[in-house]
């Protein structure tokens, strides 16, 4: 519940900022210089303060911003997985269309009082109103832009889309990152039992639960590979309050909360294993078709190898000594030194530790 409210809060802020700016821009385009233009044709044009229309643009932006956030949140939470995309778009378009008619009808009453004039706001007034259709077309275009930004941000991850937009990674950039390789336990057995169709739905649900907690722990998804997810943090976010470790146990708790669903739907309770490591790597844009950010560096291979040792030691979470020394662990965690290990494909040995939670908090 708390996570859902936080997600709605973020969506609400984004929606308010976007729609207020969008309608202020609409007012600027449509009404800026109108008084001077009318003076050419009319001896006594309607005298209005320059800020008059901006007040109503701000009001419309706030109203639509709140309503838009509510509708998008409700659809994302309850309906998106149940409705096909086409039907989803049609229903939302009808809702927004009705809402715009109602909003402009109410606002026109206030405009009448302010200007002491009669505006056409009787039943069906919108059919012949050019201003109404201008606003509808503008709303649809702006809505497409908002959706495009949101889809791009979801596709590339928080902040990554903006970095790609400004060309930050056109040339490879060196960064210090924390990586987590997160993999499903006994995936082969589960896949053989469920079949590839149901197994794919099983993985979808697992990663949906993972996505519900990512923002809380400031984690970024580098990529999904089959039944494996690769997560990433910059040092500041990942080390703060041991977020890179806390996420793993929060994910376990999230799955456990839904154990009835998994057991009833798939007759399997998902369990994941993970490896954590940190170091310098290169980040660069790759490809022209299906462009994406790629991580290059030894830290990636090492993290994958650490995660692979989970089966050897029958542990759920392993971490390198390099990263462990950076983190200030609290008393809720128990670490166990497994030794200096020569990982497959590596020249030198590396110290790894297992991490468990001492008790629930």
From TrEMBL:
Pfam families: Guanylate_cyc. Residues 178-307 form the Guanylate cyclase domain. The keyword Ligase does not apply. The chain crosses the membrane at residues 12-31, 51-71, 83-111, 131-149. InterPro entries: A/G_cyclase, Nucleotide_cyclase. Keywords: Membrane, Transmembrane, Transmembrane helix. GO terms for molecular function: adenylate cyclase activity. Gene3D superfamilies: Nucleotide cyclase. GO terms for biological process: cyclic nucleotide biosynthetic process; intracellular signal transduction. This is Adenylate cyclase. It comes from Ichthyenterobacterium magnum. The lineage of its organism: Bacteria, Pseudomonadati, Bacteroidota, Flavobacteriia, Flavobacteriales.
């Amino acid at each position: 519940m708390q996570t859902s409210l936080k997600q709605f809060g973020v969506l609400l802020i984004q929606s308010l900022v976007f729609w207020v700016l969008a309608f202020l821009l609409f007012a600027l385009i449509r009404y800026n210089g109108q008084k001077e233009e009318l003076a050419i044709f009319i001896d006594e044009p309607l005298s209005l303060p320059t800020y008059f229309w901006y007040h109503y643009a701000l009001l419309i932006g706030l109203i639509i911003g709140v309503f838009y956030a509510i509708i998008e949140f409700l659809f994302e939470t309850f309906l998106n997985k149940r409705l096909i995309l086409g039907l989803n778009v049609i229903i939302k378009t009808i809702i927004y269309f009705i809402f715009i008619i109602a909003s402009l009808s109410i606002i026109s009453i206030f405009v009448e009082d302010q200007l002491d004039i009669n505006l056409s706001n009787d039943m069906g007034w919108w059919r012949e109103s050019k201003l109404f259709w201008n606003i509808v077309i503008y709303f649809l275009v702006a809505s497409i832009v908002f959706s495009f930004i949101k889809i791009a941000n979801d596709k590339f991850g928080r902040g990554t889309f903006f970095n790609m937009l400004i060309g930050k990674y056109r040339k490879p950039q060196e960064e210090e990152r924390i990586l987590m390789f997160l993999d499903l336990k006994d995936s082969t057995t589960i896949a053989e039992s469920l079949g590839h169709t149901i197994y794919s739905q099983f993985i979808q649900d697992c990663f949906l639960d993972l996505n519900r907690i990512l923002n809380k722990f400031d984690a970024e998804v580098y990529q999904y590979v089959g039944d494996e997810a690769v997560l990433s943090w910059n040092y500041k976010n990942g080390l703060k309050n041991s977020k890179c470790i806390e996420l793993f146990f929060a994910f376990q708790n999230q799955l456990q909360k839904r154990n009835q669903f998994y057991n009833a739907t798939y007759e399997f309770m998902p369990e994941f294993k993970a490896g954590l490591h940190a170091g310098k790597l290169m980040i660069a844009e790759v490809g022209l078709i299906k462009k994406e950010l790629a991580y290059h560096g030894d830290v990636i291979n090492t993290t994958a190898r650490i995660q692979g040792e989970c089966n050897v030691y029958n542990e759920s979470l392993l971490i390198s000594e390099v990263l462990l020394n950076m983190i200030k662990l609290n008393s809720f965690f128990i670490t166990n030194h497994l030794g200096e290990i020569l990982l497959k494909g590596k020249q030198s040995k590396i110290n790894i530790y297992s991490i468990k939670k001492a008790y629930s908090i």
